[in-house]
């Protein structure tokens, strides 16, 4: 099983990276793209208006469309304008072979990670591989949706056995999560339950209080 980095660790790595590497890591975190998929992205593959990414899937995986945040879409648009990129240009120029480009991406990441771990005196950062950002994305995806099919679709998995490991990673993350890192809310009607689920809450328990069933939901802060 892969070791899942914490949100704090991922943010440290992103903040500690230079401008271009910072953007690559943000895309990796928000989309779960494999490094070779990221390095094959063309400017036209990212719609900064709808905030959708249309990657070319590797490892014979299923095609998918991925949503990114407003902040990331704006950062990509600003980067493309600054670099004067045309629609068919690679977003990140370099080796035309995406596999070799991914290796360069990995090398730059490891150099930055080593320097950052020394600067912050945090040797735990050295254990976080570039590919762990994909594991982080898929785990957070399942944690939010609790739907193995959605996680498989967004991860580009053809085999659900590949996706099932993220169910286990979510369980580990929940065990490591402190109670004070959760927000809890209650619901007594179907509508209230639906609204909480739509906002990322998951059912934790239910109690009978004076003949009324009260459902308790929780969500990470």
Short description:
The chain is α+β, with helices and mostly antiparallel strands. The chain has helices at residues 7-16, 19-31, 35-39, 70-82, 98-120, 132-145, 148-155, 160-176, 190-198, and strands spanning 46-47, 52-53, 66-67, 182-187, 202-209, 212-220. It folds into 2 domains: 7-176, Intergrase catalytic core (hpI Integrase, Chain A, Orthogonal Bundle); 181-220, no CATH class.
Describe the protein's topology.
Elements (H helix, E strand, L loop, with lengths): L6 H10 L2 H13 L3 H5 L6 E2 L4 E2 L12 E2 L2 H13 L15 H23 L11 H14 L2 H8 L4 H17 L5 E6 L2 H9 L3 E8 L2 E9 L1
Antiparallel strand pairs: 1-2, 2-3, 4-6, 5-6
Helix pairs in contact: 1-2, 2-6, 6-7, 6-8, 7-8
Explain what you see.
The chain is 51% helix and 13% strand. A hairpin with a 2-residue loop joins strand 5 (202-209) and strand 6. The protein is of the alpha+beta class and 221 residues long. The protein has helices at residues 7-16, 19-31, 35-39, 70-82, 98-120, 132-145, 148-155, 160-176, 190-198; strands at 46-47, 52-53, 66-67, 182-187, 202-209, 212-220. The protein contains 9 helices and 6 strands. The longest helix has 23 residues, at 98-120.
């Amino acid at each position: 099983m892969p070791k899942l980095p914490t949100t704090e660790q991922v943010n440290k790595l992103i903040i500690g990276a230079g401008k271009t590497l910072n953007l690559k890591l943000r895309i990796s975190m928000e989309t779960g793209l494999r490094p070779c998929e990221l390095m094959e992205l063309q400017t036209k593959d990212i719609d900064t208006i709808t905030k959708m990414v249309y990657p070319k899937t590797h490892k014979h995986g299923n095609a998918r469309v991925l949503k990114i945040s407003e902040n990331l879409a704006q950062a990509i648009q600003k980067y493309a304008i600054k670099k004067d990129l045309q629609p068919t240009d690679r977003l990140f120029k370099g080796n035309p072979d995406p596999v070799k480009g991914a290796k360069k991406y990995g090398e730059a990441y490891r150099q930055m990670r080593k320097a950052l771990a020394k600067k912050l005196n945090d040797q735990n950062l050295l254990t976080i591989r570039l590919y762990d950002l994909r594991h982080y994305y898929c785990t957070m995806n399942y944690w939010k949706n609790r739907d193995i099919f959605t996680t498989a679709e967004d991860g580009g998995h053809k085999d659900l056995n590949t996706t099932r490991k993220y169910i286990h990673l979510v369980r580990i993350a929940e065990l490591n999560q402190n109670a004070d890192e959760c927000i809890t809310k209650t619901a007594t009607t179907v509508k209230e339950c639906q609204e909480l689920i739509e906002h990322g809450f998951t059912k934790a328990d239910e109690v009978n209080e004076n003949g009324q069933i009260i459902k308790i939901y929780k969500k990470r802060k």
